[in-house]
Amino acid sequence: MKLSENDLKIYIILAIGVFIISFSGIIIKVITAPALVIAFYRVFITMIILTPYFFYKYSNSLKYFLDIRPALVGFLLALHFYAWISAVQLTNVANAVIFIAIQPLFTLLMEYLFAKEDIRKGAIAGVGFALLGSIIISYSDFHIILTRFYGDMLAVLAAFLAACYLFLGRSFRKKIKYIPYIYIVYTYCAFFLFIFVLISGGSFTGYSNISYFYIFLLALGPTLIGHSILNLSIRYVPATIVSLAILGEPIITTILALVILKETLTGATMVGGVLILYGIFRAINTNQKKRSKIASKET
C-alpha cells in the first residue's frame, strides 16, 4: 500500500527521532564526569527547558505532583539513568545499546506476571533468542574484561528499570497529557538524582566546559527532542511500529561508535546482537498480532 504524503512525513520524523536518540551513548562516552552527575544534569536541564511551557499551558496539572505514582516513576527513572550511563562508561557502546534494547522483553514479562496477559509461543521463542544472544556477549566479556561484563549487567539492569517505570507509569500516563507527564516525572527524577549525588559525595561543579556542553546536548537532543518525537509518534503510528523503529538505535549507535569513537566490534557482540535484535523483533511482532486479534474480536 502506497503511503500518503502525511504518512511519509510522520515516518521520516520518526526516523529522525531514532537517529537523534542514537547519539545518546556516543555523547555519554565522551563526557568526563561521574554517571550520577551526568544523569542529574541531563534530567535537570530538560526540566528547566520545559518549565516555562509547562506553567504557561499546563499549570492546572500541578495537582498531579501530589500523586504518589509519578514520584515512584521518577525514582525508577533516576535509577535507570544512573544504571544506563554507568553501563556506557564501563562497557563498549555497542554492548550497552544492545542490552538496553531488551526492555520490551521485560515489559512482556511484567504484563504476563502482573496484568495476566498471555504470552504466545512466538514471543517466548523471541525471548529465548534474546537470552541466547545475551549469554554469548556476556560470556565473552566475562572472560576478556571483567569491567566490561559488569557494564553489560548494568545495561541489563537499566533495561529492567526502564520496563518497570514504563509499566508502573502507564495507568497514570493515560489520565494526563505527555508534556505535564514528563515534566512531573522528570522533576521527581531530578530531585532523587540530586539526593543521590549528595549521598555519594559527588560534586556538581569542577568539570570541563566541554563536558557541560555535551551534557546540554544530551538533554536537548536525545532526551528532549528524540524521546518527544517517539512519544508523539505513537499518536499517528501503531505502537508496534514505534517499538520496532527503536530497534534501529542499537544499529545506528554501533555504527556511530565505530566511526566516531573508533570502537572495535567483537564477533561475540555481532552474533549476540543479531540474536537479541531478532528475538526482540519476533516477540514484539507476535505480541502485536495477538492484540490485533483480540481487538478484532471485540469489534
Structure overview:
It is a single chain. With 299 residues, the protein is mainly α. It has one domain. The chain has helices spanning 5-21, 24-30, 35-57, 68-90, 93-100, 103-114, 121-144, 146-173, 178-200, 209-233, 239-246, 248-260, 267-298. Helix 7 runs antiparallel to helix 13 (267-298). 42% of the residues are buried.
- How large a portion of the residues is in β-strands, by DSSP E? under 5%
Order of helices and strands: HHHHHHHHHHHHH
Unreliable stretches (pLDDT < 50, length at least 5) are 294-299
Structure classification: mainly alpha
What kind of assembly state do the chains in view correspond to? single chain
Helix content: over 70%
User: Gyration radius, to the nearest Å?
Assistant: 19 Å
Strand segment count: 0
Integer tally of domains: 1
Net shape:
globular
Main sheet makeup: none
Q: How far from one another are the termini?
A: 24 Å
Per DSSP, the total helix count is: 13
Q: Name the average pLDDT.
A: 85
Task: Summarize, please.
This protein has 299 residues and is an all-alpha fold. It has helices at 5-21, 24-30, 35-57, 68-90, 93-100, 103-114, 121-144, 146-173, 178-200, 209-233, 239-246, 248-260, 267-298.
What are the salient characteristics of this protein?
299 residues, mainly alpha, single chain, disordered C terminus, 13 helices
